[in-house]
Amino acid sequence: MEEGKIRLLVCEDDEVFTKLLLSRLSKEADLEVVGTAINKETLAFAMEQVTFDVLLLDLNLADRRMEGMEIALDLRNRYPSIKVIVLSSVEEDEIVALMLGFGRVVNYIMKENVQDIPAAVRDAYYERSGIHYSSAKKLLNNLNAQQERELRKKITPKQLQILKLQDAGYTRREISEMLFYSEYTINNELCKISSALKGKFPYLEWLRLKKHNSKDILQLARQLHLI
Question: What fold characterizes domain 6-144?
């Protein structure tokens, strides 16, 4: 290996894509592929034979769906310093989030963006953050959905019902009569909703007030897709 080059190990079972990838990487003077593998077993053997800086890992290998995920999780525990970039055609938001989160891979790139892989390799090697745009949106979508689920857990069905009735234009007194609760109970449940929102968004100035405007609370609830 020439001094100063970034050494790559490629684990990919698609022969056509492998040729395309190797051809693309060969055009980069500072990158060198030092080994290839097609599955978990051949990767383990290759890792014993060569020294490398970055692993380019296919998510689905041979007939074993998500074998790349198994490999990433294993490497995370056994070799936490290894930098792994996942190359995949799998676009599910949850899978992308799992690989970047639990799998601790440094990037997740759709195979159609093969031209962007050299830059991603350099970012990984020099420890520069830079999730590829093909997976960044999916990660954010998953994170947003997760946060919405966590917030919904803090809002009870009773409180959600009260919010929906308020959003429909009913007064607190009317809601208390419809749900057979005292008006005090309705007010108390709305205070609990405010507390839950305050815990999630402490930086919103109006939420720090003791008395909250129901209109503001309803608007925030709509923005958060609670109602």
Answer: Rossmann fold (3.40.50)
